[in-house]
Amino acid sequence: MTTPARVECVKVLAQIQAYVDGELDVLECSAIERHCTACDACAAIVRGLQETIGLCREVGRAPLPESVSGRAREQVKRLLESSRVTPER
Q1: How far apart (Å, rounded) are the C-alpha atoms in residues 88 and 71?
Q2: What single DSSP character describes residue 9?
Q3: Helix or strand run (H / E) with residue 11
Q4: How many CA atoms lie within 13 A of 56 on its CB side?
Q5: Over 70: is that where the pLDDT of 5 sits?
Q6: 46: exposed, middle or buried (Cβ count in 10 Å: 0-12, 13-18, 19+)
Q7: Residue 78, Cβ neighbours under 10 Å: how many?
Q8: pLDDT at residue 18 greater than cutoff 50
Q9: pLDDT tens digit sequence for 19-60
Q10: Is the pLDDT of residue 85 over 90?
Q11: pLDDT over 90 (residue 73)
């Protein structure tokens, strides 16, 4: 059985890159932030990505190399695929 919290985690992970890039609207950001106040795992992922991005920006204002952002996208994709919610029969 899939718990509502787990389903919400999958939704957060699906939007995490857009969230940390500032591409979501206020309502979507608020939903992620509310979830993260109740979910330590998702909060840690968001914090880690924000810190990583912050560190990269401190190093230089050049955009992340495609190899780095590509690896990050692939890791998020693998996380989503490994936690894919399957319909119950």
Answers
A1: 32
A2: H
A3: helix 4-20
A4: 12
A5: no
A6: buried
A7: 10
A8: yes
A9: 988 899 999 999 999 999 999 999 999 999 988 888 877 776
A10: no
A11: no
Structure tokens of 22? 């500032």
> 67 is written with which tokens?
């190899």
Compute CA distances 72 → 1, 17, 66, whole Å.
29, 9, 10
**Residue 61, amino acid:** R
**Structure-block tokens of residue 88:** 């119950």
pLDDT at 62 over 70: no
The set of long-range contacts for 5-12, using a CB threshold of 8 Å and a minimum separation of 24, is 5/38, 5/39, 6/83, 6/85, 7/85, 8/35, 8/39, 9/35, 9/39, 9/41, 9/42, 9/83, 10/80, 10/83, 10/84, 10/85, 11/35, 12/36, 12/39, 12/42, 12/46
